[in-house]
Design brief:
Blueprint lengths: L1 H21 L7 H8 L5 H21 L3 H13 L8 H26 L4 E10 L15 E9 L6 E7 L1 H24 L1
Antiparallel strand pairs: 1-2, 2-3
């Protein structure tokens, strides 16, 4: 019976951590989890357990581990000796939580990492003026028309239209190249 209670407490601890970290449930605190689930542990012992489970869950979530990756990770963790390792009961609880909440945790992480407003769509075309449709000499070149659909989660889209001549279009393309090079340099240094 004690093992069942221990497993339930560990499962509830992991659920509480997930609620706090991934689902922004501000009612869940470390103190609440300790008092409700592990009243017999000292504050220091609980803090170590809490931080260890939180770190393991973050590692699993950050890597978005599939079933085989999770099993390999947890097997390696159970083979560690001392403070860094996990017990087989902890591995089972972590595995169960991840199998039941992987999709929801992933969606939460994605929503937390998105910039708002976001680009929902982009369409473009190039218009050429014919000799008979020219209004003046300035309008004689091609014109790029860009339409961007921007929006925040849960709100209607806004549309922004840009009209760019050849020089402005080349300027925009150079800026986009600079941005891509900056992103590439950051990614390659990580």
């Amino acid at each position: 019976m004690a093992n069942v209670d221990k497993a339930k407490s560990l499962s509830s601890l992991l659920n509480g951590i997930a609620q706090k970290v991934y689902y922004s449930n501000t009612e869940i605190t470390e103190e609440l989890l300790k008092n409700e689930l592990y009243p017999d542990l000292s504050q220091e012992e609980f803090h170590l357990l809490h931080d260890k489970m939180k770190a393991l869950l973050k590692s699993i979530a950050t890597a978005d581990m599939d079933h085989s990756q999770l099993e390999a990770f947890l097997t390696a963790q159970t083979k560690k000796q001392g403070v860094g390792g996990v017990s087989s009961e902890q591995a089972v609880a972590l595995s169960h939580l991840w199998k039941t909440q992987r999709v929801r945790v992933r969606e939460s992480l994605l929503s937390q990492s998105c910039w708002e407003p976001g680009l929902r769509g982009l369409s473009w075309r190039v218009d050429l003026h014919t000799a008979s449709s020219q209004r003046n000499a300035f309008d004689s070149g091609p014109v790029a028309l860009l339409e961007m659909e921007l929006g925040r989660t849960g709100q209607d889209s806004e549309f922004v239209c840009l009209e760019l001549d050849d020089a402005k279009l080349n300027q925009v393309l150079r800026k986009m190249t600079d941005i891509q090079e900056s992103i590439d340099s950051i990614v390659h240094h990580c």
